[in-house]
Specification:
The chain has about 220 residues and is α/β, with parallel strands linked by helices. It has 11 helices and 6 strands.
Length: about 220
């Protein structure tokens, strides 16, 4: 029978009451051990060097260097370091920046305790993880930016995109719109560039996700 190793944790938070609360929670969990705590970024970096934890659980708002800077410094020292952000910030931009800095997970402090515990195990295993509120916010933000990109298309580009989604050939589109195949090809390239995709499969998936056909049907029904 395989016994799961104990996950050693460095807990970083500048609020003593918050630290004590989560220390108490983690101490009750089988297979988890807080081997060090820190109240600021500089102290956390030193504790990381001393304790060599398996997972760093850190807030973003810290005195001195921020949690983002702490993550970057730790990753520079140890590229394999596994870090989980546990923050009050619910803005998805913070999660994006934390991921870019090197964090594997982002959990908001409004999440139930079991979400944090599961995230620690996920990060320890090298898996990316987000709390539900952040995952939903990121999804909505992505759709919003894609929708804005769609609105940059000209009428002709939008019409070509609709025909492409219907799997029409370049020749068919050119004949339908009374333009040259070269113009269709040029527009096809511009559409992909404006929508931030590199291939036709990705373009099709984006168009379907943004309901391009439904949008056109709606506009026709109102005319």
């Amino acid at each position: 029978m395989n016994v799961m190793p104990t996950i050693k944790i460095l807990l970083v938070d500048d609020h003593a009451i918050v630290r004590e609360g989560y220390l108490s929670l983690l101490a009750k969990q089988t297979g988890l051990q807080v081997v060090a705590v820190a109240a600021d970024g500089i102290q956390a970096y030193q504790r990381f060097k001393e304790s060599r934890p398996d997972v760093v659980v850190t807030d973003l708002s810290l005195p001195g260097i921020s949690g983002l800077e702490l993550i970057s410094r730790i990753k520079q020292r140890d590229a394999n370091a596994k870090m989980l952000v546990f923050s009050m910030h619910q803005n998805p931009s913070f999660a994006v920046q934390a991921s870019r800095a090197g964090a594997l997970g982002y959990i908001t402090k409004s999440s139930p305790p079991e979400v944090l515990l599961r995230a620690i195990h996920d990060v320890y295993c090298g898996r990316h993880t987000l709390s539900t509120d952040i995952a939903q916010a990121l999804a909505l933000e992505k759709i919003g930016s894609e929708q804005m990109a769609l609105e940059t298309l000209t009428v002709r580009e939008f019409e070509i995109l609709r025909l492409l989604v219907e799997a029409k050939t370049t020749e068919h589109i050119a004949q339908t719109l009374n333009i040259s195949p070269k113009t269709v090809s040029n527009c096809h390239y511009l559409i992909k560039r404006k929508l931030g995709v590199t291939g036709d499969i990705e373009l099709m998936r984006l168009a379907i996700r943004l309901n391009v056909i439904s949008l056109l049907d709606l506009s026709l029904s109102t005319n």
